[in-house]
Each structure stands twice: as C-alpha cells, then as structure tokens.
Amino acid sequence: MGRFTLARETLRIAFESIKSQLLRTILTVLIIAIGIMALVAILSSVSALENTIAGDFSSMGANTFNIQRYEFGTRRQSGRELQKINPVITFRNVLDFEKEYTYPYTKTAISFVGTRNAEVKFENKKTDPDVSVLGVNEYFIQNSGLEVDEGRELNYFDIQNSNSVCVIGSDLRKGLLGDVNPINKTISVRGAKFKVVGVLKTKGATFGNNQDLRVIIPIQKARTIFTNPDINYSLSIKVDKKDMLESAQDEAILTFRNIRGLNPVEENNFGLERSDDLINRIGSITQYLYIAAWIISIITIFGSSIALMNILFVSVSERTREIGVRKALGAKRKTIAFQFFMEALIIGQLGGILGIILGVLIGLLVSTIAKFQFAIPWLAMFSAFTIAFIVAIVSGLLPAIKAAKLDPIESLRYE
Question: Range of 230's domain?
C-alpha cells in the first residue's frame, strides 16, 4: 500500500512539474506529435490508396486480361526518346478479334467510352454534364466485375438487335430518378431515348472518375450517337478456368498480332494487362511511399527525442535544489529517477496521442478529397503509440539517471 501511495505521489509531482513548465511542455508535445502525425497521415493515405486500387482491380478477377492501346504506365518520355505511338484499336480490329479468337472457356467483352461528360434527362429533370456513356457488348458487365442491383444486364439479343435499352449506375439512378422505380423508365442521352433495364451496384470513384455516374448501352447503338473517327476500343477477356489463363493470353496476343498484320520480328503495337499485374505493380509503388513515410517519421522523431531529452536535462538543472531537499528528506534514488522518467513518459504519450489524432484526420481528409476508401490505420496507430513510448523511454532515461545521481549536499548548496 505504501509503495502504491509513493508511486501516486511521484506521479502527482511529475504532473505538477509538467504544468509548471507549460510552454516548454506544449512545444515538446508538438515536436513529437509532428513526427507521429507524418507517419500516421502518410501510412493511412497510402493504405486508403491501396484499398481503393485493389478493390477496383480485384473485382475484375485474377482470371481477366485486357487488350488495350498501351501497356499500363507506358507512353511517357524517357530522356529524348519518346515512346512510340500505338495505333488506336479500331472497331474493325475488335470485330475481327471476336470472330477469330475461339479459345475455349473464354468470353470477350468489347467496349468504348463514347463520352465522359454527357447530360442525361428524365421527364423534366436533367443531370450535370458529367455522366460517362459506354457502348458495350453482352459480356462487358460480367468481365468488369460489375453486378446488377435492380433489373437485368444487357443480353445477347439487346446487342444483336441494337435495342434502345440501357443499364445505369447507382448515383445516376438516385440523382435523376430519386424514389421512382427505374426499371422500364425512359431516359434520354444526346437526344436518343433509352429504356432502363438495370441498375448497377455501387462501385465508388477512383481518381475523381465516378464509376456510378454512367450509362451502359449496346455498342452499335452507341456508335450511331458517338461518331468520332478516332474512337479507341477495349477488349476484356475472361477465362473461366484459371489454369488456362497463360495459354489464353498467348493465343490472344497471337490473334491480335495477326489482325494488326505484324511480322514475327515486329514488337506488339498494343498493350496487354492482367488485373493482378496492376495490383502487384501498384503495390510495389506504394511500398516506396511506405518507406518514405518511415524515413520522414524517423528523422522527425529523432529530432523530437533530442528536444525532449534537452528539456528534461534543463529541468534537472533548474530543480537541482528541489532534488537535494527531497533526497535530504529521505527520497531514494529510484524515486527521483521514477519522477523524471514519468515526466518523459507523460510528455511522450501526449505527443503520441495528439499525433495519432492529427494523422488520422489528415489521412481522412486526403481520402475524402481524392475519394479513396478510407480505413482506420490500426497498424500505423499501433506503430505510432509504440514509437512515442520508445521516444519517451530513451529521452527520459539519461536525465532520470542524472537526477538520481545528484549529491544531496551539493544540490542543497546549488543556487
């Protein structure tokens, strides 16, 4: 019981000492908080970015691959050499591919983006001009990992007969039709009328591109509305049997090379991407961001440890006489050491808690602005708390030992 009372009394003295040097304490807490904040904010933002990208691409499934104009991340200038410009993937290319690519257990989706800034009307209401309109075939919705929430998908007959039907995104349904049952309602895009047959499940937004603000219509119908001569088409191939993915890709490359008329020594003038390749590549990029976060934090935290240690050393010098009095009255070395150690621990943990709160708020703000999927960064918070604890221990140890070693007689003489 006596020990508990002593510990409580020592804690009270530590708190009193912290309060008596309020400005100094606030500055030290802020220095520690900045380091922890940098760590938590960067880690939570990177984690939110990863969640968003992984969510977007993993929905495609690891057994899907795309044929597109460029490889992901190419067509950038390296030195003086400009990446060669690939020809667009034309409608003739995709039709030929659909006809010639007969690999078993595969489904080929064809699509193109007619516009990203369409205005959609329903009765006397209309949207802002920020709706994407896609022309697709019957496999696009499945191959893209999309699901229908209400109604049905576009089917083979819709595509073959070029029916005036559409599937719409969930945000478009809420914003334009409100509480009205959307199925079989007529909306208009660029003067053309479409009957709504389905509504997609919510998908969210990536890099400002809202995937729930879109209208999906049969490809031939889209071609009559959007007549730009340089339209670039995309092919997405889904393989039902995962063990056949590699050979399905090889066959697709060979087929598309033949369609493009490439001879054996010519390089591909198109890109092929697998959804899991993208996730791995983005994972390797975010790895560097994690390393950067740790380096920034370690430098800041190292600075804050020195600041905390200096403040405690100054505190020991200023309170030499007080320490002498306490020792003369029977305070033991470990009691004195414990008091200074507790001061360091309290300041360290206050800095840690403040840093975690600020870091999470910044991470949340970044995620909200960039429309990432924010998740509470438990690992970053645990790391920050541990770091704050270690900083306090390291910073508090030397001043505490110095205080405990002071000679009571010399201390009493100290002015």
Answer: 87-269
What digits encode the pLDDT tens for the residues 244-268?
A: 888 999 999 999 999 998 888 888 8
Q: Is residue 164 part of a domain?
A: yes
Confidence check: pLDDT of 301 > 70? yes
Give me the pLDDT at residue 22, please: 81
* 255-to-115, 232, 252, 258, 388 alpha-carbon distances in Å: 29, 18, 5, 5, 59
- Residues in Cβ contact with 210 at an 8 Å cutoff, skipping those fewer than 6 apart: 130, 169, 171, 371
Among 210, 244, 269, the domain boundary falls at 269
C-alpha–C-alpha distance, residues 241 and 244, integer Å: 6
- Number of separate domains in the chain: 2
Strand partners, 163: none
**Could you tell me what percent of the chain has a pLDDT over 90?**
26
**What residues does 196 pair with on adjacent strands?**
166
Element at 248 (helix H, strand E): helix 245-260
Residue 323: closest CA among 409, 252, 210: 409
Return the closest-CA partner of residue 263 out of 271, 254, 252: 254
In this structure, the answer to whether residues 137 and 190 fall within a common structural domain is yes
Residue-wise pLDDT for 117-171, tens only, equals 899 999 888 888 889 999 999 999 988 888 898 899 999 999 999 999 999 998 8
Residue 312: which residues within 8 A CB-CB, separation 6 or more?
Answer: 340, 343, 344, 395, 396, 399, 400
> Measured between alpha carbons, how far is 270 from 303 in angstroms, rounded to an integer?
51
Average pLDDT, the chain: 82
